[in-house]
Amino acid sequence: MKKFLLSVIDWFYPLFKGIMPLQTYRYAACGGANTLLDIGVFSFSFYYIFHQQNLVLPFMTLKCFTASLIVAFCISFPTGFVLMRYLVYPESNLRRRVQLFRYLLQVVTCILLNYVFMYLFVEMYHIFAPLAKVMTTIIVVAFSYLTQKHFTFRVKEGLPTS
What we know:
Shape: globular
Order of helices and strands: HHEEHHH
Number of strands: 2
Strand order of the largest sheet: 1-2
């Protein structure tokens, strides 16, 4: 499966070869695909699972968009981890559980950064929300790429690669 996915992803790489290295391209392709999956699952949940209605639980009520975010996260988090671990950063020799924990930290940090930058740009600097979202996405994607490369899936010196 890994070889098949890499062959599909890498088939388009010649179009981008002049502007980015292969690992960055694979990160963009896998991250983009996982983001589309996340949006798709969120939308499906919002419209077809929860029917735009709040989720009433015995101990609390969740807004429909919150419940949909949770469902999307439960699918896109493990999918994103697997794509990054096996397709983008296969040379990482850290233990899987260390990578998984670091990936979780990185994802939670990205969620918080999204909130902080959106609040800062829209509420404090009064930037038009769609433009603020683009600016925020650029910052968060750059942060995500750098932390995954140098922290979550780094190659630890002295350990064999897996």
